[in-house]
Amino acid sequence: MKSLKVWLFFLLMGMFYEGIAQDTSDLMNLLEKEITSTKDMTFYTTATFKTTRLVNGHSVENVAKGVLDVKISHRFGNLNEGFYELFGLDKATMRIGFDYGITNTLMIGVGRSTYQKTYDAFFKLKILRQSKGKRKMPITLSYLPTIAYRSLKWEDQTIKNYASSRLSYSHQLIIGRKFSEGTSLQLMPTFVHQNLVTSANDPNDLFAIGIGGRQKISKRISINVEYYYQLEEYKLPGTTNSLSVGFDIETGGHVFQVHFTNSPGMNERTFIADTKGLWDKGDILFGFNISRVFTIRNKR
Amino acid sequence: MRKKILILVTFFFVTLSTNAQNFITKNGKISFFSKTDVENIDAVNNQAVSLINSQTGSVAFSVLVNGFLFKKALMQEHFNENYMESTKYPKASFKGSITDMSKVDFKKDGSYNVTVTGDLNMHNVTNKVTVAAVILVKGNTVSANTTFKVKLDDYKIAIPKVVENNISKTIDLKVDCNYEAR
Fold first, then answer.
1. Nearest by CB to A19, which of B22, B24, B55?
2. CATH of A45-295, one of 2.40.160.40, 3.65.10.10, 3.80.10.10, 1.10.8.80
3. pLDDT at B17
4. Which residues have a Cβ under 8 Å from the Cβ of A134 and sit 6 or more positions away?
5. The whole model's pTM is what?
6. Distance of alpha carbon A173 from its chain centroid, rounded?
7. Domains contained in chain B, CATH given
8. Which chain B residues touch A18 with a CB distance below 8 Å?
Protein backbone atom coordinates (compact mmCIF):
# COMPACT_ATOMS: atom_id res chain seq x y z
CA MET A 1 0.00 0.00 0.00
CA LYS A 2 2.84 2.34 0.89
CA SER A 3 4.50 1.67 -2.43
CA LEU A 4 1.23 2.63 -4.15
CA LYS A 5 1.18 5.97 -2.30
CA VAL A 6 4.78 6.67 -3.27
CA TRP A 7 4.00 5.73 -6.82
CA LEU A 8 0.94 7.98 -6.91
CA PHE A 9 2.98 10.86 -5.42
CA PHE A 10 5.62 10.54 -8.10
CA LEU A 11 3.01 10.22 -10.79
CA LEU A 12 1.33 13.45 -9.64
CA MET A 13 4.68 15.18 -9.27
CA GLY A 14 5.56 14.10 -12.75
CA MET A 15 2.33 15.43 -14.19
CA PHE A 16 2.66 18.64 -12.25
CA TYR A 17 6.26 19.06 -13.30
CA GLU A 18 5.37 18.34 -16.87
CA GLY A 19 2.66 20.99 -16.69
CA ILE A 20 4.96 23.63 -15.24
CA ALA A 21 7.70 22.87 -17.71
CA GLN A 22 5.36 23.16 -20.62
CA ASP A 23 3.89 26.28 -19.14
CA THR A 24 7.02 28.33 -18.76
CA SER A 25 9.58 27.26 -21.29
CA ASP A 26 8.08 24.99 -23.91
CA LEU A 27 5.24 27.27 -24.89
CA MET A 28 7.43 30.32 -25.21
CA ASN A 29 10.13 28.36 -27.01
CA LEU A 30 7.57 27.02 -29.38
CA LEU A 31 6.24 30.51 -29.95
CA GLU A 32 9.73 31.89 -30.51
CA LYS A 33 10.37 29.11 -32.99
CA GLU A 34 7.28 30.09 -34.93
CA ILE A 35 8.34 33.72 -34.90
CA THR A 36 11.88 33.04 -36.12
CA SER A 37 10.24 31.89 -39.31
CA THR A 38 9.68 35.61 -39.94
CA LYS A 39 13.43 35.79 -40.57
CA ASP A 40 12.45 34.69 -44.05
CA MET A 41 10.63 37.98 -44.46
CA THR A 42 12.05 41.13 -46.03
CA PHE A 43 11.62 44.38 -44.15
CA TYR A 44 11.71 47.47 -46.32
CA THR A 45 12.97 50.69 -44.82
CA THR A 46 10.25 53.30 -44.55
CA ALA A 47 10.21 57.02 -43.79
CA THR A 48 13.71 57.80 -45.07
CA PHE A 49 12.43 61.34 -45.50
CA LYS A 50 9.18 62.93 -44.37
CA THR A 51 8.03 63.79 -47.87
CA THR A 52 8.93 63.41 -51.55
CA ARG A 53 10.88 66.68 -51.62
CA LEU A 54 14.00 67.58 -49.68
CA VAL A 55 13.73 71.35 -50.28
CA ASN A 56 13.57 72.17 -53.99
CA GLY A 57 14.56 68.82 -55.35
CA HIS A 58 13.23 65.35 -54.86
CA SER A 59 14.03 63.04 -51.99
CA VAL A 60 14.17 59.30 -52.39
CA GLU A 61 10.62 58.99 -51.01
CA ASN A 62 7.58 58.18 -53.12
CA VAL A 63 3.95 58.80 -52.32
CA ALA A 64 2.22 55.51 -51.58
CA LYS A 65 -0.08 53.75 -53.99
CA GLY A 66 -3.41 55.46 -54.38
CA VAL A 67 -2.35 58.61 -52.54
CA LEU A 68 -2.64 62.12 -53.99
CA ASP A 69 -0.19 64.66 -52.61
CA VAL A 70 -1.08 68.29 -53.25
CA LYS A 71 1.94 70.52 -52.92
CA ILE A 72 1.83 74.27 -52.69
CA SER A 73 5.20 75.96 -52.62
CA HIS A 74 6.21 79.60 -52.24
CA ARG A 75 9.54 81.34 -52.58
CA PHE A 76 9.64 84.96 -51.48
CA GLY A 77 12.10 87.62 -52.65
CA ASN A 78 15.69 88.06 -51.50
CA LEU A 79 16.19 88.87 -47.84
CA ASN A 80 18.78 91.53 -48.77
CA GLU A 81 16.14 93.63 -50.53
CA GLY A 82 15.61 95.30 -47.20
CA PHE A 83 12.67 96.70 -45.33
CA TYR A 84 11.03 98.37 -48.37
CA GLU A 85 10.28 94.91 -49.80
CA LEU A 86 9.78 93.61 -46.26
CA PHE A 87 12.87 91.43 -46.70
CA GLY A 88 11.47 89.81 -49.80
CA LEU A 89 8.02 89.01 -48.48
CA ASP A 90 6.39 91.45 -50.94
CA LYS A 91 7.47 89.25 -53.82
CA ALA A 92 6.57 85.68 -54.28
CA THR A 93 6.82 82.96 -56.86
CA MET A 94 4.79 79.85 -56.36
CA ARG A 95 4.26 76.36 -57.67
CA ILE A 96 1.21 74.21 -57.29
CA GLY A 97 1.68 70.55 -57.97
CA PHE A 98 -0.16 67.27 -57.85
CA ASP A 99 1.70 64.02 -57.22
CA TYR A 100 0.05 60.63 -57.35
CA GLY A 101 1.26 57.15 -56.48
CA ILE A 102 0.37 54.63 -59.19
CA THR A 103 2.14 51.85 -57.31
CA ASN A 104 4.31 51.95 -54.22
CA THR A 105 7.38 52.27 -56.47
CA LEU A 106 6.05 54.51 -59.24
CA MET A 107 4.67 58.01 -58.83
CA ILE A 108 3.79 60.70 -61.34
CA GLY A 109 3.44 64.43 -60.89
CA VAL A 110 2.52 67.63 -62.67
CA GLY A 111 2.98 71.23 -61.63
CA ARG A 112 2.75 74.84 -62.66
CA SER A 113 5.17 77.50 -61.47
CA THR A 114 4.67 81.23 -61.77
CA TYR A 115 8.43 81.52 -62.33
CA GLN A 116 8.69 81.86 -66.15
CA LYS A 117 5.12 80.46 -66.29
CA THR A 118 6.47 76.93 -66.34
CA TYR A 119 4.54 73.68 -66.60
CA ASP A 120 6.39 70.60 -65.46
CA ALA A 121 5.78 66.88 -65.32
CA PHE A 122 7.77 63.93 -64.03
CA PHE A 123 7.68 60.36 -62.93
CA LYS A 124 9.77 58.76 -60.21
CA LEU A 125 10.54 55.07 -60.20
CA LYS A 126 12.09 53.21 -57.30
CA ILE A 127 14.55 50.73 -58.80
CA LEU A 128 16.03 49.46 -55.55
CA ARG A 129 14.58 49.65 -52.07
CA GLN A 130 16.65 49.66 -48.90
CA SER A 131 15.77 46.55 -46.94
CA LYS A 132 16.91 44.06 -44.36
CA GLY A 133 15.91 40.53 -43.46
CA LYS A 134 15.83 37.91 -46.17
CA ARG A 135 16.65 40.34 -48.96
CA LYS A 136 19.31 42.83 -47.95
CA MET A 137 19.81 46.09 -49.81
CA PRO A 138 21.90 48.95 -48.38
CA ILE A 139 20.42 51.76 -50.50
CA THR A 140 17.32 52.99 -52.23
CA LEU A 141 17.80 53.96 -55.87
CA SER A 142 15.28 56.04 -57.79
CA TYR A 143 15.16 57.33 -61.32
CA LEU A 144 13.50 60.69 -61.90
CA PRO A 145 13.05 62.11 -65.40
CA THR A 146 11.36 65.49 -65.71
CA ILE A 147 10.14 67.72 -68.51
CA ALA A 148 9.40 71.43 -68.25
CA TYR A 149 7.69 73.86 -70.62
CA ARG A 150 8.24 77.60 -70.31
CA SER A 151 5.11 79.36 -71.49
CA LEU A 152 6.40 82.90 -70.95
CA LYS A 153 5.89 85.11 -74.04
CA TRP A 154 8.94 85.45 -76.22
CA GLU A 155 10.97 88.61 -75.63
CA ASP A 156 11.56 89.10 -79.33
CA GLN A 157 8.34 88.45 -81.23
CA THR A 158 9.83 89.56 -84.57
CA ILE A 159 11.98 86.47 -85.05
CA LYS A 160 10.88 82.89 -85.63
CA ASN A 161 10.45 81.19 -82.26
CA TYR A 162 9.99 77.46 -81.96
CA ALA A 163 7.72 75.79 -79.45
CA SER A 164 10.40 73.16 -78.88
CA SER A 165 12.70 75.94 -77.63
CA ARG A 166 10.49 76.19 -74.59
CA LEU A 167 11.25 72.68 -73.46
CA SER A 168 13.90 71.43 -71.08
CA TYR A 169 14.54 68.00 -69.64
CA SER A 170 16.35 66.49 -66.72
CA HIS A 171 17.33 63.00 -65.72
CA GLN A 172 18.23 62.28 -62.14
CA LEU A 173 19.32 59.28 -60.14
CA ILE A 174 18.70 59.44 -56.43
CA ILE A 175 20.78 57.17 -54.24
CA GLY A 176 19.58 57.36 -50.68
CA ARG A 177 20.18 55.60 -47.43
CA LYS A 178 18.52 55.82 -44.05
CA PHE A 179 21.49 55.42 -41.72
CA SER A 180 19.50 55.57 -38.51
CA GLU A 181 16.05 56.52 -37.32
CA GLY A 182 17.04 60.19 -37.51
CA THR A 183 19.73 60.40 -40.17
CA SER A 184 19.30 59.95 -43.91
CA LEU A 185 21.59 61.00 -46.75
CA GLN A 186 21.28 60.97 -50.51
CA LEU A 187 23.30 61.68 -53.66
CA MET A 188 21.64 63.00 -56.80
CA PRO A 189 23.68 62.89 -60.01
CA THR A 190 21.68 64.93 -62.52
CA PHE A 191 21.74 65.68 -66.24
CA VAL A 192 19.88 68.75 -67.52
CA HIS A 193 19.21 69.50 -71.18
CA GLN A 194 17.81 72.81 -72.39
CA ASN A 195 16.65 73.08 -75.97
CA LEU A 196 17.41 76.78 -75.98
CA VAL A 197 20.12 78.61 -74.06
CA THR A 198 20.88 82.34 -73.96
CA SER A 199 23.91 82.52 -76.22
CA ALA A 200 25.42 80.36 -78.93
CA ASN A 201 28.45 79.50 -76.81
CA ASP A 202 26.45 78.26 -73.84
CA PRO A 203 26.22 74.51 -73.46
CA ASN A 204 22.78 72.95 -73.84
CA ASP A 205 23.66 70.09 -71.53
CA LEU A 206 24.93 70.26 -68.03
CA PHE A 207 25.82 67.83 -65.30
CA ALA A 208 25.35 68.43 -61.62
CA ILE A 209 25.79 66.35 -58.51
CA GLY A 210 23.40 66.94 -55.69
CA ILE A 211 23.97 65.97 -52.09
CA GLY A 212 21.35 66.19 -49.41
CA GLY A 213 20.29 64.85 -46.09
CA ARG A 214 18.13 65.18 -43.06
CA GLN A 215 18.63 64.96 -39.36
CA LYS A 216 15.62 64.61 -37.11
CA ILE A 217 15.63 66.90 -34.10
CA SER A 218 12.41 65.48 -32.72
CA LYS A 219 9.96 62.80 -33.83
CA ARG A 220 8.16 65.23 -36.08
CA ILE A 221 10.75 67.86 -36.98
CA SER A 222 13.87 67.46 -39.09
CA ILE A 223 16.57 69.73 -40.51
CA ASN A 224 17.22 69.29 -44.22
CA VAL A 225 20.16 70.41 -46.32
CA GLU A 226 20.36 70.24 -50.11
CA TYR A 227 23.24 71.31 -52.36
CA TYR A 228 23.60 70.98 -56.12
CA TYR A 229 27.10 71.29 -57.49
CA GLN A 230 27.29 72.07 -61.21
CA LEU A 231 30.34 70.58 -62.90
CA GLU A 232 32.47 73.61 -63.84
CA GLU A 233 32.91 72.79 -67.54
CA TYR A 234 29.14 72.78 -68.08
CA LYS A 235 28.14 75.65 -65.83
CA LEU A 236 26.19 78.43 -67.52
CA PRO A 237 27.70 81.92 -67.14
CA GLY A 238 26.30 83.95 -64.26
CA THR A 239 24.77 80.97 -62.49
CA THR A 240 25.63 79.71 -59.03
CA ASN A 241 25.17 76.43 -57.20
CA SER A 242 21.93 75.93 -55.34
CA LEU A 243 22.15 75.62 -51.56
CA SER A 244 19.11 75.22 -49.34
CA VAL A 245 18.57 74.66 -45.65
CA GLY A 246 15.18 73.91 -44.22
CA PHE A 247 12.96 72.27 -41.68
CA ASP A 248 10.31 69.60 -42.14
CA ILE A 249 7.44 69.87 -39.69
CA GLU A 250 4.95 67.04 -39.79
CA THR A 251 1.42 67.27 -38.40
CA GLY A 252 -0.87 64.37 -39.25
CA GLY A 253 -1.72 64.56 -42.95
CA HIS A 254 0.35 67.72 -43.55
CA VAL A 255 4.06 68.28 -43.93
CA PHE A 256 5.24 71.88 -43.70
CA GLN A 257 8.66 72.59 -45.11
CA VAL A 258 10.13 76.01 -44.34
CA HIS A 259 13.50 76.88 -45.74
CA PHE A 260 16.11 79.35 -46.88
CA THR A 261 17.54 78.95 -50.36
CA ASN A 262 19.29 80.93 -53.08
CA SER A 263 17.07 79.42 -55.81
CA PRO A 264 13.77 81.01 -56.81
CA GLY A 265 12.84 78.14 -59.14
CA MET A 266 11.07 74.97 -58.09
CA ASN A 267 11.71 72.56 -60.90
CA GLU A 268 14.96 70.77 -61.75
CA ARG A 269 16.09 73.03 -64.58
CA THR A 270 15.46 76.27 -62.74
CA PHE A 271 17.10 75.50 -59.43
CA ILE A 272 20.03 73.54 -60.84
CA ALA A 273 20.82 75.54 -64.00
CA ASP A 274 19.22 78.93 -63.34
CA THR A 275 20.17 79.90 -59.78
CA LYS A 276 21.90 83.26 -59.69
CA GLY A 277 21.99 84.23 -56.03
CA LEU A 278 24.90 83.92 -53.65
CA TRP A 279 24.44 83.08 -50.00
CA ASP A 280 27.37 85.23 -48.85
CA LYS A 281 25.88 88.28 -50.63
CA GLY A 282 22.60 87.78 -48.84
CA ASP A 283 20.69 86.62 -51.93
CA ILE A 284 18.71 84.30 -49.74
CA LEU A 285 15.02 83.63 -50.15
CA PHE A 286 12.61 82.46 -47.53
CA GLY A 287 10.18 79.82 -48.75
CA PHE A 288 7.86 77.04 -47.79
CA ASN A 289 6.25 73.91 -49.22
CA ILE A 290 2.98 72.63 -47.88
CA SER A 291 2.13 69.01 -48.58
CA ARG A 292 -1.33 67.63 -47.98
CA VAL A 293 -2.07 64.01 -48.77
CA PHE A 294 -5.44 62.58 -49.77
CA THR A 295 -6.03 58.87 -49.85
CA ILE A 296 -7.84 58.29 -53.12
CA ARG A 297 -7.77 54.52 -52.98
CA ASN A 298 -7.71 52.67 -49.69
CA LYS A 299 -4.61 50.67 -48.97
CA ARG A 300 -6.55 47.53 -48.18
CA MET B 1 -3.16 -8.13 -10.03
CA ARG B 2 -2.18 -4.85 -8.41
CA LYS B 3 0.80 -4.58 -10.73
CA LYS B 4 -1.50 -5.01 -13.71
CA ILE B 5 -3.73 -2.21 -12.44
CA LEU B 6 -0.68 -0.04 -11.87
CA ILE B 7 0.54 -0.58 -15.40
CA LEU B 8 -2.92 0.10 -16.75
CA VAL B 9 -3.30 3.27 -14.70
CA THR B 10 0.19 4.46 -15.69
CA PHE B 11 -0.63 3.80 -19.29
CA PHE B 12 -3.86 5.71 -18.90
CA PHE B 13 -2.14 8.76 -17.42
CA VAL B 14 0.64 8.70 -19.96
CA THR B 15 -1.81 8.64 -22.86
CA LEU B 16 -3.79 11.38 -21.15
CA SER B 17 -0.79 13.64 -20.75
CA THR B 18 0.39 13.08 -24.31
CA ASN B 19 -3.14 13.83 -25.39
CA ALA B 20 -2.78 17.29 -23.87
CA GLN B 21 -1.69 19.44 -26.72
CA ASN B 22 -0.85 22.82 -27.99
CA PHE B 23 -3.15 24.76 -30.20
CA ILE B 24 -1.36 27.06 -32.55
CA THR B 25 -2.00 29.74 -35.15
CA LYS B 26 0.35 31.72 -37.33
CA ASN B 27 -2.26 33.91 -38.91
CA GLY B 28 -4.17 35.18 -35.96
CA LYS B 29 -6.07 38.39 -36.53
CA ILE B 30 -5.46 41.33 -34.24
CA SER B 31 -7.13 44.61 -35.05
CA PHE B 32 -7.64 47.90 -33.29
CA PHE B 33 -9.99 50.83 -33.51
CA SER B 34 -9.75 54.42 -32.47
CA LYS B 35 -13.02 56.31 -32.55
CA THR B 36 -13.23 60.07 -32.23
CA ASP B 37 -15.61 62.73 -33.51
CA VAL B 38 -13.02 63.79 -36.09
CA GLU B 39 -12.10 60.44 -37.58
CA ASN B 40 -12.08 56.71 -37.08
CA ILE B 41 -8.83 54.84 -37.41
CA ASP B 42 -8.50 51.11 -37.72
CA ALA B 43 -5.72 48.70 -38.53
CA VAL B 44 -5.43 44.97 -38.81
CA ASN B 45 -2.65 42.44 -38.50
CA ASN B 46 -3.30 38.96 -39.89
CA GLN B 47 0.01 37.46 -38.90
CA ALA B 48 -0.17 37.13 -35.17
CA VAL B 49 1.44 33.99 -33.80
CA SER B 50 -0.36 32.47 -30.85
CA LEU B 51 -0.39 29.32 -28.76
CA ILE B 52 -2.76 27.84 -26.23
CA ASN B 53 -1.76 24.91 -24.08
CA SER B 54 -4.97 23.00 -23.50
CA GLN B 55 -3.57 21.25 -20.45
CA THR B 56 -2.23 24.15 -18.43
CA GLY B 57 -4.30 26.91 -19.98
CA SER B 58 -1.30 29.07 -20.67
CA VAL B 59 -1.66 31.44 -23.58
CA ALA B 60 0.94 33.34 -25.59
CA PHE B 61 0.74 35.87 -28.42
CA SER B 62 3.40 37.60 -30.44
CA VAL B 63 2.92 40.06 -33.25
CA LEU B 64 5.16 42.21 -35.44
CA VAL B 65 4.15 45.82 -34.99
CA ASN B 66 4.98 46.79 -38.57
CA GLY B 67 2.56 44.13 -39.79
CA PHE B 68 -0.47 46.28 -38.96
CA LEU B 69 -2.16 47.43 -42.14
CA PHE B 70 -3.99 50.75 -42.30
CA LYS B 71 -6.28 52.14 -44.94
CA LYS B 72 -4.10 55.22 -45.21
CA ALA B 73 -0.42 54.73 -46.00
CA LEU B 74 0.68 57.82 -44.11
CA MET B 75 -1.12 56.67 -40.97
CA GLN B 76 0.74 53.39 -41.17
CA GLU B 77 4.02 55.25 -41.52
CA HIS B 78 3.28 57.50 -38.56
CA PHE B 79 2.08 54.54 -36.48
CA ASN B 80 5.43 52.84 -36.96
CA GLU B 81 7.65 55.88 -36.93
CA ASN B 82 6.14 58.12 -34.28
CA TYR B 83 3.79 56.16 -32.06
CA MET B 84 4.94 52.54 -31.75
CA GLU B 85 8.56 53.14 -32.80
CA SER B 86 8.58 49.74 -34.42
CA THR B 87 12.22 49.87 -35.47
CA LYS B 88 13.19 50.12 -31.81
CA TYR B 89 10.41 47.88 -30.47
CA PRO B 90 9.48 45.51 -33.31
CA LYS B 91 7.23 43.12 -31.36
CA ALA B 92 4.22 43.25 -29.13
CA SER B 93 3.45 40.20 -27.02
CA PHE B 94 1.16 38.71 -24.44
CA LYS B 95 2.01 35.94 -21.98
CA GLY B 96 -0.62 34.73 -19.63
CA SER B 97 -3.10 32.03 -18.80
CA ILE B 98 -6.73 31.12 -18.71
CA THR B 99 -7.60 31.47 -15.06
CA ASP B 100 -10.73 29.31 -15.14
CA MET B 101 -9.47 26.37 -17.15
CA SER B 102 -11.85 24.01 -15.36
CA LYS B 103 -14.68 25.48 -17.42
CA VAL B 104 -13.12 24.47 -20.71
CA ASP B 105 -13.22 21.01 -22.20
CA PHE B 106 -11.05 20.99 -25.29
CA LYS B 107 -12.43 17.61 -26.27
CA LYS B 108 -16.02 18.72 -26.31
CA ASP B 109 -17.52 21.04 -28.89
CA GLY B 110 -18.90 24.19 -27.37
CA SER B 111 -18.48 27.83 -26.56
CA TYR B 112 -16.72 28.64 -23.29
CA ASN B 113 -16.57 32.03 -21.60
CA VAL B 114 -13.23 32.41 -19.86
CA THR B 115 -11.03 34.98 -18.20
CA VAL B 116 -7.50 35.45 -19.43
CA THR B 117 -4.93 37.25 -17.35
CA GLY B 118 -1.31 38.04 -18.07
CA ASP B 119 1.32 40.51 -19.20
CA LEU B 120 0.76 42.64 -22.28
CA ASN B 121 3.95 44.09 -23.67
CA MET B 122 4.10 46.77 -26.31
CA HIS B 123 6.19 49.86 -26.96
CA ASN B 124 8.61 48.39 -24.41
CA VAL B 125 6.09 48.71 -21.58
CA THR B 126 4.53 45.72 -19.79
CA ASN B 127 1.20 45.89 -18.03
CA LYS B 128 -0.99 43.29 -16.33
CA VAL B 129 -4.25 42.85 -18.14
CA THR B 130 -7.33 40.73 -17.43
CA VAL B 131 -9.80 40.22 -20.23
CA ALA B 132 -12.94 38.23 -20.88
CA ALA B 133 -12.60 35.90 -23.84
CA VAL B 134 -14.63 33.29 -25.64
CA ILE B 135 -13.13 29.96 -26.62
CA LEU B 136 -14.93 28.00 -29.27
CA VAL B 137 -14.12 24.31 -29.62
CA LYS B 138 -15.23 22.56 -32.77
CA GLY B 139 -13.77 19.21 -33.61
CA ASN B 140 -10.04 19.52 -33.82
CA THR B 141 -9.99 23.30 -34.04
CA VAL B 142 -10.17 25.94 -31.38
CA SER B 143 -10.92 29.60 -31.92
CA ALA B 144 -10.57 32.43 -29.44
CA ASN B 145 -12.13 35.89 -29.45
CA THR B 146 -11.82 38.89 -27.25
CA THR B 147 -12.25 42.63 -27.31
CA PHE B 148 -10.72 44.87 -24.71
CA LYS B 149 -9.59 48.42 -24.17
CA VAL B 150 -6.04 49.69 -23.97
CA LYS B 151 -5.07 53.11 -22.66
CA LEU B 152 -2.28 54.61 -24.77
CA ASP B 153 -0.97 56.43 -21.74
CA ASP B 154 -0.30 53.10 -19.99
CA TYR B 155 2.13 52.17 -22.76
CA LYS B 156 3.84 55.56 -22.96
CA ILE B 157 2.44 56.25 -26.42
CA ALA B 158 2.26 60.01 -26.65
CA ILE B 159 -0.22 61.88 -28.85
CA PRO B 160 0.91 65.34 -29.91
CA LYS B 161 -1.43 68.30 -29.36
CA VAL B 162 -2.14 68.91 -33.06
CA VAL B 163 -3.77 65.51 -33.51
CA GLU B 164 -5.17 64.96 -30.02
CA ASN B 165 -8.72 65.24 -31.36
CA ASN B 166 -8.02 62.70 -34.10
CA ILE B 167 -6.75 59.85 -31.96
CA SER B 168 -8.67 58.32 -29.09
CA LYS B 169 -6.86 58.01 -25.80
CA THR B 170 -8.37 54.56 -25.37
CA ILE B 171 -8.05 52.03 -28.17
CA ASP B 172 -10.30 49.01 -28.71
CA LEU B 173 -8.25 45.90 -29.34
CA LYS B 174 -9.84 42.91 -30.98
CA VAL B 175 -8.34 39.43 -31.13
CA ASP B 176 -9.71 36.76 -33.41
CA CYS B 177 -7.65 33.57 -33.77
CA ASN B 178 -8.36 30.17 -35.27
CA TYR B 179 -6.06 27.53 -33.83
CA GLU B 180 -5.07 24.14 -35.05
CA ALA B 181 -4.01 21.22 -32.88
CA ARG B 182 -0.30 20.60 -32.91
1. B55
2. 2.40.160.40
3. 47
4. A39, A40, A41, A42
5. 0.82
6. 12
7. 21-181 (2.40.128.110)
8. 17
